[in-house]
Write a structure and sequence with these properties.
It is a single chain. The protein is mainly α. The protein folds into three domains: 245 residues, Orthogonal Bundle (Lysozyme), CATH 1.10.530; 73 residues, no CATH class; 60 residues, Membrane-bound Lytic Murein Transglycosylase D, Chain A, CATH 3.10.350. Helix 7 crosses helix 8. The radius of gyration is 31 Å and the shape is elongated. The protein has a three-stranded antiparallel sheet, covered by helices on one side. A two-stranded antiparallel ribbon has the order 3-4. The chain has 18 helices and seven strands.
């Protein structure tokens, strides 16, 4: 059965560089901060909490940004250092529900984005044009703040096929267990963490459940990074205080940096123009259509009949780890919009093409009764032995590695008498 979706998506076709770019972080200058008059912006002096460079985990930024391909980008940012009052005013101007507090930690990560990594920010601006509409649609559907769309920038650098060394995957970097608990299919053939639509839906449901627990978006964002268990532990150690900056000293090192990076990413993407960060050339885009099929299918069957390159099919369908749609229930096959008609027209031919080689080569039943052991006897199960001239029950029992009593029981024999040609039931 094939069902054509009317849902049309724009899919980004881009190459992702997996080679990390090591950048030595520069020291953050200790500027004197002025308090903002608008109390919606929280400005924290360094004297309140003794933050040090050792408290920051800049590897998060370095790692996710290293996934971005900046080959075609020549972005050069304005490296002029701005006064803190400018950053404060700009963050205050954002039409957000989630507060965007400013301090020297936040400034340090803003500098990393706009001063030291302008080419990556330029590429993120381009990628956001493709993924943010999807994020926004789902966030609105679940009644969540739109600014949460910046989380995948921290998690994956907007790389839908990103895998972390600890096993997280996809735009939202779900761990397998969390993904399964959120309704995503993760197994040897299918990894829906790599499906942008399904993963985004699962992420929104997960974020909503965290907000039910904490009622504070800063804690939700922190919990998304380190899990509710670590947040609850930090709250207990902070004598029950439920503010991110109060529990900050008790959080894992990476999570201490997570909210400041989130604020910095919001700033960098919203004010890239003010820092003269250019847009990169648009990668190849592809209008795609989705077809549902409940039949087992290999992407190579589709490629060889329709002429769609395998590289393109894999980019359109990254969730199929072995290029196989398992069947047994409806699975989505994403195709170039101008090729869906060809698929439907040649549907029967596609399913039959190399089916025995690609998808029908798995043995469903193995008749172990036909398997012989080293003595040429069936290795397991039930079988029949025909009595030959000279046979006795004792000789048959010895040859078949059993006992006379068992042979008599299996065949309802009242004596040891047998005749030539008699059929005896045997079991191994």
């Amino acid at each position: 059965m094939v069902k054509k979706f009317s849902y049309i998506i724009l899919l980004l076709i881009s190459s992702i560089s997996l080679s990390a770019q090591e950048v030595e972080p520069q020291a953050i200058e200790a500027d004197t901060l002025a308090f903002a008059e608008d109390t919606s912006i929280v400005v924290m002096k360094d004297s309140v909490v003794p933050y040090t460079q050792d408290d920051l985990d800049k590897r998060i930024v370095d790692y996710t940004l290293s996934w971005l391909d900046t080959t075609d980008c020549s972005a050069v940012a304005d490296t002029t250092r701005l006064p803190d009052s400018v950053y404060i005013a700009r963050l205050r101007s954002l039409p957000y529900i989630i507060e965007m507090p400013y301090n020297q930690i936040v400034r340090g990560f803003i500098d990393m984005y706009v001063l030291r990594r302008p080419r990556q920010v330029a590429r993120l601006r381009t990628l956001s044009g493709f993924y943010f509409p999807l994020f926004e649609e789902k966030l609105h559907q679940y009644g969540l703040p739109e600014e949460l769309k910046y989380l995948p920038i921290i998690e994956s650098g907007l790389n839908p096929t990103a895998y972390s060394p600890v096993g997280a995957a996809g735009l939202w970097q779900f761990m397998p267990r969390t993904a399964k608990n959120s309704g995503l299919e993760v197994n040897s053939l299918v990894d829906e963490r790599l499906d942008p639509i399904k993963a985004t839906d699962a992420a929104c449901r997960f974020l909503r459940s965290l907000y039910v627990i904490y009622g504070d978006w800063n804690l939700v964002i922190a919990a998304y990074n380190c899990g509710p268990g670590n947040i609850n532990k930090a709250i207990r150690r902070a004598n029950g205080k439920r503010d991110f900056w109060d529990i900050w000293p008790y959080l894992p090192r990476e999570t201490r940096s997570y909210l400041p990076i989130f604020i910095a990413a919001n700033y960098a993407l919203n004010f890239a123009d003010e820092h003269n960060i250019c847009m990169t050339p648009l990668p190849i885009t592809l209008a795609a259509d989705t077809i549902l099929t409940d039949r087992r299918l290999h992407l190579l069957q589709v490629s060889e009949i329709t002429g769609i390159p395998m590289t393109e099919l894999r980019r359109l369908n990254p969730q199929y780890r072995m290029d196989v749609l398992p069947g047994s229930k409806p699975y989505a096959l994403c195709l170039p919009i101008d090729m869906t008609g060809a698929f439907i027209m040649h549907e029967d031919t596609i399913y039959k093409h190399k089916a025995d080689t690609l998808i029908n080569n798995r043995r469903e039943v193995i008749d172990m009764a036909q398997k012989l052991d080293a003595d040429g006897l069936p290795a397991t199960g039930a079988y029949t032995y025909t009595v030959k001239k000279g046979d006795t029950l004792g000789a048959i029992a010895k040859k078949h590695k059993t006992t006379v009593a068992k042979i008599k029981k299996w065949n309802h024999l009242k004596s040891d008498m047998i005749s030539i040609g008699q059929k005896l039931k045997m079991f191994r």
